[in-house]
Amino acid sequence: MNKEEKQSTQPGRQYVMESTPVTIRDNYKGSDKLKGKVALITGGDSGIGKSAAVHFAREGADIAIVYLDEDTDAKDTQQAIKAEGKECLLIKGDVKDAKFCKEAVQQTVDKYGKLNIVVNNAAVQFSVENLEDISINNLHTTFETNIYSYFYITQAAMEYLNKGDAIINTTSVTAYRGSEHLIDYSSTKGAIVTFTRSLSGLLAKKSIRVNAVAPGPIWTPLIPATFEKERLKDFGKDVPMGRPGQPSEVGPAYVFLASEDSSYMTGQVIHINGGEIIGG
Description:
It contains eight helices and seven strands; from the N terminus they run E-H-E-H-E-H-E-H-E-H-H-E-H-H-E. It is of the alpha/beta class. InterPro entries: NAD(P)-bd_dom_sf, Sc_DH/Rdtase_CS, SDR_fam.
């Protein structure tokens, strides 16, 4: 990974990475855990979102992917899902726009006739050395992408979600331990934890489960889009397992939270972070 160059745009492009993230294990066996389900995944074109999408497809779900402008990655993911024998709707647009989020949900329902699983996953992050270096523009972009969109997508989805359906939010290890160079990003991830817990209580009476996944250092396009080459060579080496994780090591957690396997779980967070002990 030390050969990677910093990418110039957020949230990053997977197809240009020299060390391509692993999306799904070759020996992962689907067992129809999500047969007949429809999932909408924001930021589903690459990284963790792509992994969740392909795992869902292998488990029998049809997919709608929301992405910003990474057309090549989105089409690659679409082909990977079709290779699993499932459909994949690509929805291009900016999740900072509430109107677009509502339209994305509607397009999904128009295509498939229903919606069962919502994965709020889209995110950006801008690393800075000092608090004063956080620009107003980047602050707004980070909050509007990372947490506002979760409200927009989920509000639009509520009309279609029913008993047994699931909402899964992507938070981060930084929500629990902070990050001195990603203060705004980690703040949004903390908000996602609270959003998850609060919404789970509200929707429990409707038997709609709301949970989250808190990844640690996972090798995705967001990483070379965030950090300089010098920092990339040590990425993930400070966790007990001594290495970054792959999206393929996170995707199965989304399957668990989307399926009946987690039928007695709501308001919880699964920590996949290479062994870092996190309270909460």
